[in-house]
Amino acid sequence: MRTLCEIRNLSVTYRGQTIPALNRIDLDIVTGERLAIIGESGSGKSTLARAVAGLLPVGAKLAGKMRWSSGQPPLPGRDLGFVFQDPSSSLNPVLTIGEQVAEGARRHLGLSWREAYGHALKMLERVRIPEPDKAMKAFPHQLSGGQRQRIAIAAALAGRPGILIADEATSALDMVVQAEIVSLLDELVREAGMTLIFITHDIALASGFADRVAIFKDGRLAEIGPTGHVLSSPKEPYTKTLIASHRDLTTPPLIREAAS
Amino acid sequence: MTLLTIENLSKRFSSGGREVAAVSDVSLTLEPGETLGLVGASGSGKSTLARILMRLLPADAGAIQFEGKDWLTLSGAELRRHRARMQMVFQDVLGAFNPRATVASVLDDPLRIHAIVPKAERPRAIAALLDRVGLPASYAERSIRDVSGGQRQRIAIARAIATKPSLIVLDEAVSALDVSIRGKILELLVELQEERGISYLFVSHDLAVLRAVSHRIAVMETGRLVETGPMRQVIENPQSPAAKALIGAVPRLVTEPTEGPSHDV
Questions:
Q1: Which ipTM value was assigned to this complex?
Q2: Residues of chain B with C-beta less than 8 angstroms from the C-beta of A249
Q3: pLDDT at B92
Q4: Residue B246: HSE in the Cβ half-sphere, 13 Å Cα cutoff
Q5: Residue B194: Cβ within 10 Å count
Q6: What are phi and psi of B245, to 5 degrees?
Q7: Domain extent at residue B141
């Protein structure tokens, strides 16, 4: 087990705010693990993702340490890919799909445009876009939300980064597409031996594939541990609440059903 | 008497020279005090159906009977009068309000427009509505922006019940809320239904939510209704591929270490 990044006493305060969005976080990210960061709105989960990726807005105050095993923070695009919640705003509406996916490969893998287009086409096949050669020439608005998120994943992975951060990458999608995208992410990350940081509000979704879960509440890390341990014997009352609020197809209904 | 009957409803959109059948030949009924869960993937036509029902979009073909009226032919003053009986709660809890409004003005509007309560008695009616959805009367003076997402959805529900409707259309009404708040809002909706006999058409892509509150479930796929039945029947013994896919996609809470995703894809 090799530590990729040691986070110590990390706090983030956004400009104009007095209350920190992240408050004294201690967390180790392990190379090759699938780590789920779970929390509700205002928990600081997205702030953590942005701090790790170096994507905090100008004016955000960062205190504490992030020690990377490589000695320096990962370069976004080359060492680290980021998939955002809303693919219609993370993709450029005036560039073709091909250009957007090839761009990362050209810049970070040192390919020519022609080679980068070839690489992009392979990436579209890997994320299972139907008719990838046609999709290369399409614009984002011509694709469905699920297809757009597949493109965003292809673009994030085009530079062969070792780390992928998915920040609520499936919550704007319907459930059937969500299940497909989670399964795709899981498969791609396994194949490439990447580290996945999966940010979500949905503890059940994470429970299906994460190695470890970290539960965030109000800017603090409430609990962290192997997924099976945390879910079967949660220590913190908040984790228990989250587990108890989960609804699936075995939860008793709230309505009184007519006798049948 | 059946509250709502939708017969052979169709709606097409044309996009870039292509015709898309958003809703094709859909027929449904809803009884008083009943919740019908309308489920489908993105683009299945469920929101278009809800919008036609709310008279926010015209239908191309078909008819709707609501409280014995030929709903799609009502117009002018008669339509306005009857709109009080059918209300809607939206997914986007901030977009559904005038951002400059106060909580009191949000609730005052329907009481005034539909002449439900005379002016002098409205502050008391507003306090009663807030109390009914579990908020203190002091919230009346707050700006709609200064309350949390869950509280805002309670206010949206208070606004919907203000006109004493017989039907409320809930369009992904809990999808944007945190899970710990979601359950409480669903409980509130069920309580209001038991107390007032309101019917709900609950539109969602989340079968776990619909299962909690629906008596019957209708499944849509590419504009068509592919399956309708009692809640348990549809969830325990789905017939259509669309219903099977939606059931397989509901994340299950896995408490033991596993290999790979838990859902069937």
A1: 0.83
A2: 207-208, 211, 235, 247, 250, 252
A3: 82
A4: 32
A5: 12
A6: -65, -40
A7: 97-164
B95 confidence band (pLDDT: 50, 70, 90):
confident
Q: How confident is the model at residue A89 (pLDDT cuts 50, 70, 90)?
A: confident
Is the residue at A216 inside a domain? no
A124 in a structural domain: yes
The mean per-residue pLDDT over the stretch B60-74 comes to: 97
Chain A residues whose beta carbon lies within 8 Å of the beta carbon of residue B207: 175, 249
Contact between B232 and A260 using a beta-carbon 8 Å cutoff: yes
**A177-195 CB burial, b ≥16 within 10 A, e <16:** bbbbbbbbbbebbeebebb
Q: Provide the H-helix boundaries in chain B.
A: 46-53, 76-83, 103-113, 122-132, 149-162, 179-196, 207-213, 231-236, 241-248
Count of domains forming chain A: 1
Q: Is residue B222 part of a domain?
A: no
Judge whether residue B262 has pLDDT over 60. Answer: no
The size of the A-B interface in CB pairs under 8 A is: 139
Judge: A255–B35 Cβ closer than 8 Å, yes or no: yes
Total tally of structural domains belonging to chain B: 1
Question: Can you give the pTM of this predicted structure?
Answer: 0.88
